[in-house]
Fold these 2 entries.
Entry 1:
Amino acid sequence: MFKKLRIKASTKRSAIQDIKGSAMNWLQVKLIVAVADVEIIANVLEELGSGGVQISDDPQFDSDISAGQEAVIAFLPEEIDQQDFLSQLQQRIQLLLTENLFETTPRLLTKTVSESNWTNTWQDHYQPVRVTRYVTVVPEWIDYSTQREDEILVKLNPGKSFGTGMHPTTQLAISCLELTMRGNERVFDVGTGSGILSIVADKFGAQSIIATELDEAALGFTQENFELNQVEQKIKLLAGSLLSPIDTQADLIVANMLPEALIPLLPQLDQHLLPNGQVILTGIIKAQATKIKAEIQAQGFLIDLTLHSEQWVCYRLKRQSESV
Ligand SMILES: C[S@@+](CC[C@H](N)C(=O)[O-])C[C@H]1O[C@@H](n2cnc3c(N)ncnc32)[C@H](O)[C@@H]1O
């Protein structure tokens, strides 16, 4: 029994077209984990560019799991480099194990499956989602009209990139943008993925936006999403790591990335932030919040707003020297 399906971009636009049309086989990647480890492993799968992530939680229906365990399941289309995906997945798990982030060691199972059993569910669940008071995220292929005058629509096409609006960290970042932005800000969006936070920042009245992304394979989808929302003129998309591709300063920097990317970002913030600038950081799992907080303070920032969702935390920062 699948208790929930987290909607994540599939791997390629052509894969989406295959989902909609002809039959194909997929590699099912199934990780048997302790219940407490579900979020982190689902997040890793999504960051690596998996398809829809299902979570199976009932041993009656799933003989691979026993009490206290759940299975996090992703499907990889034939056309992506599955071996590369699996090797990256194993490396990430190893890294997280060395940081003692799992309650138990995840068990990896793989098998080839036909698409028919899951793609309908995948599409059925990828529906418009009202993320905040104002923002609704809508899959490109769904006809949706605003339900309220002040509703802000963000149209997205799943691609290899992360950021469908369904993940708690994306939702935290959007909520924090909504709480923070007053209009006319220069915004940097680090690790833009699908581009969702840049699009939202534009809708909230940003003066200009620069988005960076390490994963060059995702950039085509990001650009398509900018065009879909007619914000491509406003947002400059740069390939590269963290803030390194940028040599200017912003009023607001937003980043939704795992701590392994956030920690090296912290020393880059000060030089990229205008006076009275603010920073929104999420992607932080509660177990790592203390470590991140210490790093934030060590870099001369303080946290003036904290938001939580499920096991995730979002911090808004400003310089300690500008705290009054
Ligand atoms: C969790 S996703 C967030 C995507 C989107 N911003 C959102 O909020 O949904 C993190 C993104 O950061 C990118 N990323 C990871 N490390 C990075 C780095 N060092 N520099 C730039 N982007 C990075 C990943 O490729 C991924 O697209």
Entry 2:
Amino acid sequence: MTSDVTSAPALSCAGIRASYGPVQVLFDAGLTVEQGEMVALLGPNGVGKSTLLKVIGGLLKPDDGSVHLGGVDVTALSTRKRVGHGLCQVVGQATFPSLSVTENLAMHGYTSGSRKWTKEAVEAALAVFPRLHARRDQPAANLSGGERQMLALAKAIVVEPKVLVIDEFSLGLAPVVVGGLMELVRRLNERGSAVLLVEQSVNVALSLVHRVYMMEKGEIIAEEQASTLAADPERVRALMLGGHAAGVSA
Ligand SMILES: Nc1ncnc2c1ncn2[C@@H]1O[C@H](COP(=O)(O)OP(=O)(O)OP(=O)(O)O)[C@@H](O)[C@H]1O
């Protein structure tokens, strides 16, 4: 179960089958994110990307397959325990609307550290996000969409995750805001978090990550270096339209 945890990938999942009731959505899906790596999971709408993230986060129990964090088999563990193993998921713009920016951040710290440590971590996160710092006492409900995404990412600074999983952070945001968020993800990566990103905008993903998995109909159909894919827009287009037409190489 726990082999060499020091050299183990930050995240790996293999042979994942998952269903919603009688409808199977994932068929033998798997991927690996090495320590320090940023990886994107791309594919057309509805192929199962978010479902795989739910399985990774422990929000959906797979019918089969395994999830490892840092070499530890977490397949049977709760979401809370997975957080204890270094997983942080940023999904949508999930915040507590009636709590202030500072209170939202502190909520995440209290689960993992002391009150003093949390206070310091919150200040460190606010120092990275000046726009949040200026609104620190305002309720999250007053934030713009982009600021709420920043808040969701700022929580990752408080938590200092080993693995940061992000679902569609560019959705509905202006390009300039997305650019700022990408820079922040890059900084979190530099501080030691491996990153798995599900992203509709292929350009956003390719300019950020090192490696890409393409998913179609619940399976991983290709795996490529981001730089290789970025140099071949025709292939990217074909993969996003449906990979089997694109000469896949998983
Ligand atoms: N809670 C649910 N109950 C039933 N079916 C669901 C549920 N969530 C997702 N599905 C279905 O499972 C399939 C995969 O959905 P999923 O959200 O994982 O795809 P996705 O690749 O993330 O899509 P998108 O890029 O559009 O977000 C879709 O057919 C979707 O309709």
